[in-house]
Amino acid sequence: MGQLGTNPDDLIDCSEVLPVPPQLTTNPHFPAGKTNADVEQACAETPFPTLPSLPGPATPVAPVPSSPVFNA
Questions:
Q1: Spatial distance between the Cα atoms of 38 and 31, rounded to a whole number of angstroms
Q2: pTM recorded for the entire structure
Q3: Residue 45 above 80 pLDDT?
Q4: Looking at residue 67, what is its pLDDT?
Q5: Residues in CB range of 37: below 8 A, 6 or more apart
C-alpha cells in the first residue's frame, strides 16, 4: 500500500482478516501457443523466468471491442 501523503500510524492493519490463498495445484506455465518470446519484459535487471508452454493448439482469446486492434 502506498503511504505517500498518509500517516502510517492512522492506517488499520487488516492482514489478519485476509484469507490465506489456496496452494497451487499446477506449476506456472504459459497457455498453449504462448512462449517467453510473447513477454514484453520491462526490466532487464530482473529477467522474466523461463516457463514451459502447455502443448496443443493456441488458446483462443476474443479481442476486446474497444482495443485498437479490433477497430483497425
A1: 11
A2: 0.53
A3: yes
A4: 56
A5: none
